[in-house]
Design brief:
Layout lengths: L5 H9 L1 H22 L14 H14 L8 H13 L7 H16 L5 H28 L3 H9 L1 H22 L14 H14 L8 H13 L7 H16 L5 H28 L1
Helix pairs in contact: 1-6, 2-3, 2-5, 4-6, 5-6, 7-12, 8-9, 8-11, 10-12, 11-12
Length: 283
């Protein structure tokens, strides 16, 4: 990761006074722009506090003030990264924030948002974002442990019994919370819930021997290409699937089970996302 130039740091740090004065107005405008231009972002913030614009404004000011000494920002970075994993923020979401934040700075600051300032803040944003993306990637990976594998494999019997009920409920939740997902399944067979249930069961049974699923993974990735599934869609499935497990299994869906499936889901999702990126690149 390339370091920021001293010039960029100096320019960003010089904006601290105006950010203290206009920070909340900027973040308020940022969310307005983002939810308008990138409506898929809105569900990511449904559990955020009412003063999220103030929380973000304080984080931006703190980053600005400590940009030449990020050790002072370490605790905040760790907290932000962990919160992002909890809310299923992924690398694909960061460009939405970048465009919306820089646009909001121009809207609120007017002529004071010179090209030099916007360029410097663009560089500073992506430097910050790259740090967070790497931390979040590590946190997602760390959520899938040997203990997770064991727990997921142990859920195979209950998935044989309740798998179709879980996937049926999952689609109900996803189509309700993320209506745009319906378009991805417009050509899906009537027994799509059964197909997905069998795939989930196979994953649970072979989670310690993924070579056995190689053919299935390739088939899924190619089907995702045909139906235009993209990385931004994976959080929709994750949230809906885990909630469906809770709804159908009740007390049997303990925190350990849900956390294990969280890690297992993202482990598999990242495999598919990488395969699909290659397929999209060669399509």
């Amino acid at each position: 990761m390339a370091e920021l130039s001293q010039k960029t740091k100096d320019i960003v740090k010089s904006t601290a006074p105006v950010l203290k004065e206009q920070g909340v107005a900027i973040t308020t405008r940022m969310y307005e722009r983002m939810f308008r231009d990138f409506p898929h972002a809105k569900p990511l913030f449904k559990h955020q506090p009412d003063n999220q614009n103030q929380v973000l404004a304080r984080a931006i000011i703190s980053y600005c003030e400590n940009i030449d000494n990020l050790a002072n920002f370490e605790v905040a970075l760790d907290k932000i990264a962990r919160r992002h994993v909890e809310t299923l923020i992924r690398p694909e979401h960061y460009p939405w924030v970048a465009e919306s934040l820089l646009g909001a700075m121009k809207d609120v600051l007017g002529d004071a948002a010179t090209d030099e300032i916007i360029t410097a803040w663009g560089e500073a944003f992506w430097f910050w974002a790259d740090i967070l993306i790497e931390r979040e990637k590590k946190l997602y990976a760390e959520s899938f442990t040997e203990e997770s594998r064991k727990i997921v494999k142990e859920t195979a019997p209950v998935l044989k019994q309740h798998g179709e009920a879980i996937t049926t409920r999952m689609y109900e939740i996803m189509f309700s919370e993320y209506p745009d997902a319906k378009a991805l399944f417009k050509n899906a067979p009537n027994n799509q819930n059964q197909i997905l249930a069998r795939s989930i069961l196979a994953y649970a049974e072979n989670i310690d021997n993924l070579e056995a699923l190689e053919g299935a993974l390739d088939k899924i990735a190619r089907h995702h290409l045909d139906t235009e599934v993209k990385p931004i869609h994976y959080p929709w499935v994750a949230e809906s699937l885990l909630q469906a497990m809770k709804d159908v299994l009740g007390d049997a869906a303990t925190d350990k089970v849900i956390n294990a499936w969280f890690g297992a889901y993202w482990f598999l999702a990242d495999i598919l996302i990488e395969r699909e990126k290659k397929l999209y690149g060669t399509a």
